[in-house]
Amino acid sequence: MLRDSAHRYLLEQYSYIQREKILRAGGYSPEVWQAFAHFGWLGAALPEEAGGYGGGPEEAAILAEAVGRHLVLEPYIWTVVVGGALLLGSASAAHRDALLPAMVEGRLHLALAALEDDVGQGFAYVDTEARRVEGGWTLHGRKPVVPNGGIADLFFVSARTPDGVELFLVPRTAPGLRVRTYRSNDGQTAAELVLEGVRLSDGDRVQDASGALALLALAADHGAAAVCAEVVGSCAWLVETTCEYLKTREQYGAPLAKFQVLQHKLADMVVAVELARSMAHVAAAALGKPANERMREVSAARLQAIRCARLVGRDAVQMHGGMGMSQELDVSAHFLRLTMSTLQFGDEAFHLERMARLSA
Fold it and tell me: I want to staple 224 with a disulfide (CB 3.0 to 4.6 A). Which of 13, 251, 303, 345 is the partner?
């Protein structure tokens, strides 16, 4: 039912033309986000005690696949999947009780600011400092790439203290915080954060040094599993669209679908999507397992999704010829989004290294 309702709404209300209008207006539609909240999708993957509807990673994967198929710009994965996992894992009950309902109702956007220059997915490499002051902390540093930073109301910011890396919640309006927004190559919103003495209370700390890195790794794996499903949705759409194009486009007096080399390419794309779909299910199921097992299985799924995104995106554009790179054709937008997805929550090198280390 969840899959059918998501696809029906997005098919009727989120055409490529409507998406282009949202893109030109800033890359985010409050009306669409409120519709997501109205249908219960923002709480579908959260447990009931957290204000959700009793679902879990499988429900998040269903919605992420719909997000990928329809190229949704609104930040479901960053606000609900990653932000939700961070709030659920917060050491502060006040954070969970106050913020999760607001997120489920569509009144709160979240973003993760935990990576700095040239550190890949290394959450432990943090130069941003949290200095102890009377009654709280001050934060000093810079976070250059913050997905969803263009519209987020609250930022999860990692910072180094004498005890290690800790995690804080920073409001967008906090004095001392400068937010420079920009658009990523696939049109989504992002931001650079500059923290110059941002003053926080003890209550703004999400996790101390004993649990912050583990919580960040868990939230990133939730995001990685959702991106696997998003890639499946986008690639499945590209396979169907390319197949239809080959049936109708003629060359040398015959439909392109008659040429055996193109049939082989299409068959490779179908196999890649089905492998990625199977591994996306593995990733979603792994999120409840012990940390090492979870990370190994999520990395295996991400590797399959990354390779699927490259193969299907490249071949779909190639088989559409010059039209495949035209902005007027949604194939090019899928290609851009798939290319960006290969870098999110760890690239191929990161997941290969993590799998090797955990399997040794």
Answer: 345
Can you read off the two tokens belonging to residue 11? 């098919």
Q: Which residues pair with 140 in a beta bridge?
A: 129, 196
Half-sphere exposure of 218 (CA within 13 A, CB side): 20
The fraction of the chain above a pLDDT of 70, given in percent, is: 100
| Burial (CB count within 10 angstroms: exposed 0-12, middle 13-18, buried 19+), residue 260 | exposed
| Confidence at residue 145, expressed as pLDDT on a 0 to 100 scale | 94
Q: Which of 238, 200, 208 is nearest to 68 (CA)?
A: 238
Nearest to 92 by CA among 224, 217, 200, 225: 200
Task: Confirm if 111 and 156 have CB atoms less than 8 A apart.
Answer: yes
Mean pLDDT of the chain: 94
Six-digit token string for 319: 């088989």
What pLDDT shows up at residue 92?
A: 86
Q: How far is CA 215 from the centre of its chain?
A: 17
Q: How far apart are CA 67 and CA 6, in angstroms?
A: 9
Per-residue HEC secondary structure of the chain comes to CHHHHHHHHHHHHCCHHHHHHHHHCCCCCHHHHHHHHHCCHHHCCCCHHHCCCCCCHHHHHHHHHHHHHCCCCCCHHHHHHHHHHHHHCCCCHHHHHHHHHHHHCCCCCEEEECCCCCCCCCCCCCCCEEEEECCEEEEEEEEEEEECCCCCCEEEEEEEECCEEEEEEEECCCCCEEEEEEECCCCCEEEEEEEEEEEEEHHHEEECCCCHHHHHHHHHHHHHHHHHHHHHHHHHHHHHHHHHHHHHCEECCEEHHHCHHHHHHHHHHHHHHHHHHHHHHHHHHHCCCCHHHHHHHHHHHHHHHHHHHHHHHHHHHHHCHHHHHCCCCHHHHHHHHHHHHCCCCCCHHHHHHHHHHHHC
Q: What is the pLDDT of residue 12?
A: 95
